[in-house]
Amino acid sequence: xxxxxxxxxxxxxxxxxxxxxxxxxxxxxxxxxxxxxxxxxxxxxxxxxxxxxxxxxxxxxxxxxxxxxxxxxxxxxxxxxxxxxxxxxxxxxxxxxxxxxxxxxxxxxxxxxxxxxxxxxxxxxxxxxxxxxxxxxxxxxxxxxxxxxxxxxxxxxxxxxxxxxxxxxxxxxxxxxxxxxxxxxxxxxxxxxxxxxxxxxxxxxxxxxxxxxxxxxxxxxxxxxxxxxxxxxxxxxxxxxxxxxxxxxxxxxxxxxxxxxxxxxxxxxxxxxxxxxxxxxxxxxxxxxxxxxxxxxxxxxxxxxxxxxxxxxxxxxxxxxxxxxxxxxxxxxxxxxxxxxxxxxxxxxxxxxxxxxxxxxxxxxxxxxxxxxxxxxxxxxxxxxxxxxxxxxxxxxxxxxxxxxxxxxxxxxxxxxxxxxxxxxxxxxxxxxxxxxxxxxxxxxxxx
Amino acid sequence: xxxxxxxxxxxxxxxxxxxxxxxxxxxxxxxxxxxxxxxxxxxxxxxxxxxxxxxxxxxxxxxxxxxxxxxxxxxxxxxxxxxxxxxxxxxxxxxxxxxxxxxxxxxxxxxxxxxxxxxxxxxxxxxxxxxxxxxxxxxxxxxxxxxxxxxxxxxxxxxxxxxxxxxxxxxxxxxxxxxxxxxxxxxxxxxxxxxxxxxxxxxxxxxxxxxxxxxxxxxxxxxxxxxxxxxxxxxxxxxxxxxxxxxxxxxxxxxxxxxxxxxxxxxxxxxxxxxxxxxxxxxxxxxxxxxxxxxxxxxxxxxxxxxxxxxxxxxxxxxxxxxxxxxxxxxxxxxxxxxxxxxxxxxxxxxxxxxxxxxxxxxxxxxxxxxxxxxxxxxxxxxxxxxxxxxxxxxxxxxxxxxxxxxxxxxxxxxxxxxxxxxxxxxxxx
Lengths: 448, 430
What we know:
The complex is a heterodimer of chains A (448) and B (430).
Chain A: E1 21-26, E2 29-35, E3 41-48, H1 62-69, H2 79-88, E4 94-97, E5 102-109, H3 113-125, H4 131-149, H5 154-165, H6 179-183, H7 187-197, E6 203-208, H8 215-223, E7 246-251, E8 257-266, H9 274-286, H10 291-299, E9 303-312, E10 317-326, H11 330-347, H12 351-368, H13 372-384, H14 391-401, H15 404-414, E11 421-426, H16 428-436, E12 442-445
Parallel strand pairs in A: 2-6, 7-11, 7-12
Antiparallel strand pairs in A: 1-2, 3-5, 3-6, 4-5, 8-10, 8-11, 9-10
Chain B: E1 11-14, E2 20-25, E3 31-38, H1 52-59, H2 71-77, E4 82-87, E5 92-99, H3 103-115, H4 123-142, H5 149-157, H6 172-177, H7 180-190, E6 196-202, H8 206-217, E7 242-248, E8 254-260, H9 267-280, H10 286-294, E9 304-307, E10 316-322, H11 329-345, H12 350-368, H13 371-385, H14 394-399, H15 403-413, E11 420-426
Parallel strand pairs in B: 2-6, 7-11
Antiparallel strand pairs in B: 1-2, 3-5, 3-6, 4-5, 8-10, 8-11, 9-10
Helix pairs in contact in B: 1-4, 3-8, 9-12, 9-15, 10-11, 11-15
């Protein structure tokens, strides 16, 4: 048999073209659109400044409950009629939030977009929010969270976040709250949050074949009846510097794996080191061939997968590593993961590793931006982070131009292996002694 | 109603060694998707070798004659590509989406592991990936509430000896017993060009792909006889209602109702797909309207019904609901069974049918909106039905389904006497 032994060289590179961006003010709100000629599906997404960061202290989960309550009937029709109307268009209302924004969207064949946007606006601007319905949705959401919190992961995530940012701060508590905070929400909390943040126009994002769409008409529908201006969004939060490393043990009796969440705070999204930090994170824990996945999965076989990254929002950020490892190897996996973070902080990255990270992240911009949904997500990034139309092209160029020195410098400056919080969710009876013997840090038992 | 669910060009050829090549040109984005369907799934695994097809999929990323260990991932991600592979009862697929200028690299990598995996396969690699797969089993099936539902449903639906009786992840015992010669033999038996379909979709042309396929795959010899999987069309033991109750650490009672329907690709399964959407997709579905909004006995985010698209035996329809606090499993199971039973007795309305078809249309076009989604679809139809062009038939077939057909299929395959019911109950003290 003759297999060809020489690896082929790449062909001529195709130019990178982000779709042309249209931005204009319409009917008191902002419209941002991108043209995808010939695409049979279109997406409309209403972006509101009502992310989890807007939830009052102690009211975590408010946005998540409101997201579900929007579909419990509107001024025009009850919940069942609403469900039938929107599903008859072939879509469902997708509502969700992150730290910086609340997003409601529909995806439909392009000729159905006007009707879908009407229904979207109806739910966002004129939900009934009947007290009985809101209470039921709240109870259901609390139950759903209890279901979710029975899985490995949420308790460890919450323990890490609380230790990183302080449970006295909104950003030190879970993005969607927890079963207890959700259960404690009142009808008035939901109605006030809606009236405060869901009646401002916001930004309408439209992606699809724009030759078949009347953008101004879509925007007028989305912004009808809305009013009020933008609110101050606040600057980066101050995070108290860490002191030393510690292990937080979250007991999960009978667990056949230990869930690992290792992390520390890192800079917010607009930090000038954003690109080199992302590249350093990719070398350490982002790509399949990253240092962590190579050692912990491919060499040791301790796990199905391990990843680490820097993630940032407008006001804060964090570096974190997550994995699930076989119970018997919890301590060695933890020691080796910390070892790789330390090595990366101390000695930086190599050109060979950076070459993979750089072209992977740059290439993904070409590969991923095919669908209306993906382009809509890219446009929300522009809006939320005040970025220019050509941001993605610039980002691609910056990724490709990043050099070993600056990425190593970002690793040195923004990784803090001595100040890591190491959360381990597993069978404490089996792993506590071994964890204590690692000398990685004091072992604290979480009360969660 | 659209005439076609696939309005893009499709060109095909077959190399002398039997490799089928499918190309669909689309210059919209500067990317190409490369997809290989190998006609080898867990249905081919004999007793004592469960999990082999899937463990083998892992080994395919660990190097081959001209590709060093770990290099496969590094080269694809290093050119900006995404890649993965999956194994199910029917088949194993391998896929990459890369910036278009790296098409040739991707084909070289795929050819090298099709033709040259065995010389690079070592005991160390096997041991390592066996550990990874065992951790995958722990993470996905053993360490999560209800995680083993699929592992329990399959043997209830299909008797011992049936190709769908065991789950693709395999048993820990069989994985432990797997030795190197068995995997070398596995590759020789199934990883042959005449047991595969290569599909390329995106920023390229059929001429370019055909020439590159010949260049890289042309010299790989075919295998004379590919071992067939056991026939699964007839399922013995059907006609007997089966129930299983599991008391374990779960946060709430949950019920699964499952039935054997029709094989994927048949008219009966098209009806089943629409039926499942009427029954369990979205807030307008019967399950949601009856059990969540009406009786309020089920949790809203956890009701659903879906067919599992398996092509070589009557495919499963899985219906599930999880109890609201204070609701007994028995009541939930009764409610669930009633809604399923009514598919045969309470006619589906025009509005229900239109809603289901609209949702299915959007789902179809969403799958078609990416080059990788299209490539996998074409590979499936070429492998399972001998012609990728038949992919275009699916959407029109769904849209032609009538309420009478749904009632007829429901009466035929959803009878209580033919039902599998799996119930999870929380431990008393949990």
